[in-house]
Amino acid sequence: MTRVPEGLTFDVNLSILFTGLPLLERPAAAAKAGFDAVELWWPFGGPDPSGAELAALRQAVEDAGVRLVGLNFDAGDMAAGERGLLARPDGSARFQVNIDAAVRLAGELGCTVLNALYGNGPGTDRDLAVVNLRRAADAAAGIGATVVVEALNSHENPRYPITSSQAAFELIEQVDRANVAFLADLYHLHRMGEDVLALIDRHADRFGHVQIADDPGRGAPGSGRMPYGEIFARLAAAAGYRGHVGLEYRHEGPGAFDWRRA
Ligand SMILES: O=C(O)C(=O)CO
């Protein structure tokens, strides 16, 4: 049972929840479940989808009456384990093509958070990542959006080089753009042994977005051992962060959001 204080707003990640439905039916399912905001990993097979594909997604989001509040840039073949293109010499051209399409879609839907995953090694190139992040940030600035950098856990992502809040902060500092911030995915950080309560207390003002799941298992809050009652209380009290909290957990069958009613 998890107490949710006033002042926290949640959105549903439609790439990990409602996956039993076709993509275009998921925004309406989120609305029916009581949400007015959703987020997405890049949902297309390539970096530059057709106008018809983009229009269909836009229509589905608008018809459902929800707002897109987070969108990942194309991160390669996520189902095959790829986790971003930013720093990959063989993926950088694809990332650059995607910047336009992702920023355009985000702009049309009023989405102000764009997540750029770094890319798996071996062979990632830090300088390339910095160049690509600056390009993405400069394009995102044109629609008033922030680009976020996420740390993933190394148990599930053994070849992903950014696996701590500190590593993400260092990259963000190196990029040196006002609209580049940290995506605090509390599940990944907790799996890496970080003290997520202390992170919220000390660094909430550096968060551009927050995502949650419980650890272990990446299920709903309450399914694992993370102190979500306290996490929510600290997030609500933190002076620095007033954005959405993305529900990025797996759940099969009914009851995915019962923890909110508890
Ligand atoms: O790949 C993952 O696990 C993510 O959280 C991507 O945003």
From TrEMBL:
Keywords of this entry: Isomerase
Organism domain of life: Bacteria
Family: Belongs to the hyi family.
Domain Xylose isomerase-like TIM barrel: 28-259
InterPro entries in alphabetical order: HyI-like, Sugar_Epim/Isomerase, Xyl_isomerase-like_sf, Xyl_isomerase-like_TIM-brl
Short name of any one Pfam family annotated for the protein: AP_endonuc_2
Record's protein name: Hydroxypyruvate isomerase family protein
KW Isomerase (keyword) present: yes
GO terms, molecular function: isomerase activity
